[in-house]
From TrEMBL:
It holds the Pfam family ABC_tran. This is ATP-binding cassette domain-containing protein. Residues 12-265 form the ABC transporter domain. It comes from Deinococcus detaillensis. InterPro entries: AAA+_ATPase, ABC_transporter-like_ATP-bd, ABC_transporter_ATP-binding, P-loop_NTPase. The keyword Transport applies. Keywords: ATP-binding, Nucleotide-binding, Transport.
Length: 342
């Protein structure tokens, strides 16, 4: 969909955003260090290669990709922590790298792997620091803390030294601290990493409620697909620094390119080559086989499988979303034309 650049509803825009890092290569050992010091050898890593997309106010979007795909680099550019090597970004009408106060008051970046809270102090001391930095009035501070407490149940943990908190408790405090100023745009980089299932659900609920209450735009990366399926209708998939998919999460399992999983319990062994004539074999374990087939051809393929093999049982289901997205990562072709900016 073409967009109007002045559309006030667009809160985040990346326009051919690029980032190349220059890394110094060093051989092992002392001599290697010396050589690198005297005559540094450098190499360019193209982490983000011309990424374009737009998010509208209140949208929650999953930002997915394999390790090293460029997710964190993109989020850092959108938060103004990194200068793009090319292209442009705009968030709430601001150019992120200018780090204007009015911009910083409207965004937050939460990195599950990094912490913002002061380690040796109770979390509430870090909250007070943020209250001062963001110039939050006492009444707003109290009201926000009350709201956050309802969902996150912060009672009893705010006064403990951060170093003594469990990972889940700390993450609840990290999120609360990062959202104290009620930002309109949330960049959440693995906010649930390492948490148990219950705590992941709690954090999800908090993000969902925050989004509903403040109509906030949320861009979320997570290795837990449950986070994405619970919160996001749309996903952006990045691979090797390029956007390879921008569209509806549901469309991946129902759209024209969608596939179905056919599970077979065979009565007599078959080879992967034989089965591969009827679909893509994703697993063959003794008499248990699993194939994916185009959704539109599922009945014909199932009938053919029943005719050509001795089958004790056959079931058809949607493939796990991890598998569908994994196939996007590996695919060379773009799964759907990526939205072009006007
Ligand atoms: N400061 C840096 N200097 C040099 N290269 C970097 C730097 N930060 C990231 N990279 C490289 O840029 C590429 C993209 O990294 P990035 O952290 O953005 O990926 P990611 O999608 O967030 O990965 P992950 O899921 O593993 O966190 C990788 O090849 C990474 O090694």
């Amino acid at each position: 969909m073409m967009s109007n650049r002045s559309d006030p509803n667009i809160t985040v825009r990346a326009d051919q955003l690029r980032k190349a890092y220059t890394v110094t290569e060093k051989e092992a050992g002392f001599l290697g260090s010396l050589r690198a010091f005297v005559r540094p050898k450098t190499r360019t890593v193209e982490a983000v290669r011309g990424v374009s997309f737009e998010l509208t106010g209140g949208e929650m979007v999953g930002f997915l990709g394999p390790n090293g795909a460029g997710k964190t680099t993109t989020l850092k550019m959108l938060s103004g922590l990194l200068h793009p090597s090319g292209g442009a970004a705009s968030v709430q009408g601001h150019t992120p790298q200018k780090r204007e106060v009015a911009f910083l008051k409207q965004i937050t970046l939460v990195m599950g792997q990094k912490q913002q809270l002061i380690w040796d102090l109770p979390a509430q001391d870090s909250f007070l620091v943020n209250q001062a930095i963001y110039e939050i009035s006492d009444s707003d501070y109290k009201a926000t803390m009350r709201e956050f407490d309802e969902v996150l149940d912060l009672s009893g943990i705010l006064s403990k030294q951060v170093r003594k908190l469990s990972l889940g408790e700390r993450m609840k405090c990290e999120l609360a601290a990062a959202l104290l100023h009620r930002p309109k745009v949330l960049f959440l980089d693995e906010p649930t990493i390492g948490l148990d299932v219950n705590m992941q659900e709690r954090i999800r609920e908090f993000v969902r409620e925050y989004n509903a209450r403040f109509n906030a735009t949320v861009m979320l990366t997570s290795h837990y697909m449950a986070d994405v399926t619970a919160l996001c209708r749309r996903i952006l998939v990045i691979d090797g620094g390029e956007l390879v998919f921008d569209g509806d999460l549901a469309g991946l399992t129902t759209g024209p390119d969608a596939r179905k999983t056919v599970r077979l319990q065979l009565s007599r062994p078959a080879t992967a080559e034989e089965l591969a004539r009827y679909g893509e074999v994703v697993r063959l374990d003794g008499l248990d086989a699993e194939l994916t087939v185009p959704r539109s051809e599922v009945s014909a393929r199932a009938a053919a499988l029943l005719t050509h093999f001795e089958v004790a049982d056959l079931t058809v289901e949607d493939p796990p979303i991890e598998q569908v997205i994994g196939q996007l990562f590996r695919s060379e072709k773009k799964a759907e034309p990526v939205r072009e900016l006007a």
